[in-house]
Fold:
Amino acid sequence: MVSRKPNPVRKREPMNYRAPSTSQVSIARHPSRGTPAILLLIVSILAYFLYQILHLDVREWQKTLLVMGYLVAVWTVITKL
Structure:
């Protein structure tokens, strides 16, 4: 006669328990889900500022100074995090 393993005991959920759907899961409980969106937003804002700097109607040497200042500011913020 072949012996069978007993079924593992499953933990029963309370009667009022309802598993959250994916739309109900908050970003606060799962911060890794919001991180790509936040990073995309930050990169988009930085790209927009750089676009605005490059399209200013100023002389080339002034534009170069503005871009260098922009890069220094971004680098300082990134390395201080």
About this structure: The mean pLDDT is 80. The chain is about 55% helix and 0% strand. Helices lie at 31-54, 60-80. Residues 31-54 form the longest helix (24 residues).
